[in-house]
Amino acid sequence: MKALNVVPARESDKEAKGKIEEESTDESPARPLAHDSPPQTELQKLMPNGSSRMRLMRTLEPDAIADFCKTIGINTDEVRHEVRFASAFEGLDPIMESSVVFDAYYQLEERELFFEVIRSDMLRPDRMYYLYQMLTKLFLYRKAKSSNAELILIVIELPESVRSRFSSHDRGQERLSSQFAPAVANKLLRIEKIKYEEDELIEFIKNSSNKRVN
Prior knowledge:
This protein has helices at residues 11-24, 42-46, 50-71, 125-145, 169-179, 181-185, 198-213, and strands at 6-8, 80-85, 102-107, 112-119, 149-157, 189-195. By secondary structure, it is an alpha/beta fold.
């Protein structure tokens, strides 16, 4: 039997996950709303729509993971990004055959840490379902391998001025905590929150733009 381990995600799996994330950030109404107003603050001008917030998240994701890893003494150079379970894992799920992509992975001597990053205003049903799939697969992986594996869910809270207009920020976080309480209790899931202030994001976006130019 092939080893149950973690391998780089396939492009098809990354594209499928990216589509879910893009659909979650689709904030374009069918018709313009009369009360819509142009960006007012510097941050709103830098992040005028859902697409720009999506790009920011892709830039923030490795930074947020690295910051958390540093707090628990992990060598960030050894963190692997965008991974999935190896093909040997296929067939272990008696309910559904699907592949999930984790944002990052790190193996300790006695623990395996999987990472997923999400915006607090994107905790919608489709993303919650994908998280459920992740935890189901991780539970089966942990059981089959007798591994102490855990998902670190990093919830990023953006300033209110650039959150999605079509979300309930507080309700989403309450639903996350209540619905996945068993996973937390079983040490299958650990929820970490990172809050960014407007000035931090402005500096981050400008620094990221300068790096791309250089």
